[in-house]
């Protein structure tokens, strides 16, 4: 599978779970030891990811556009994307997202997630 296809598959699964406001399913897209840095203090592991997305308002959506990908190792990819988080009651929040995805068995999961405001 090509790098772009792999990263798209991972981010599509993340987006689907975010759009459905399903924090547990969002967390399943991350490795068990993932480093997660949203716009609040960082956490390590799936519990922190689930708590972060559980605290987000219902109706929040994520639309992304992949900007760059790099292969760091055979089973590790780096990706950079522009993401627009949409809300029902406030303006869209545009951010930059950098992720490191890693093959874990037969799946690719997010091992590092870093968001920064534009």
Polypeptide structure, described:
Residues 8-110 form the DUF4440 domain. It holds the Pfam family DUF4440. It comes from Amycolatopsis rifamycinica. This is DUF4440 domain-containing protein. With 118 residues, the chain is α+β, with helices and mostly antiparallel strands. It has one domain: Roll (Nuclear Transport Factor 2, Chain: A). It contains 3 helices and 6 strands; from the N terminus they run ααββαββββ. It has helices at residues 3-19, 23-27, 46-54, and strands spanning 30-37, 43-44, 61-73, 76-86, 93-104, 107-117. It has a 6-stranded mixed sheet with strand order 2-1-6-5-4-3, with helices on one face. A hairpin with a 2-residue loop joins strand 5 (93-104) and strand 6 (107-117). The chain is globular, with a radius of gyration of 13 Å.
What is the gist of this entry?
This protein is an alpha+beta fold and 118 residues long.
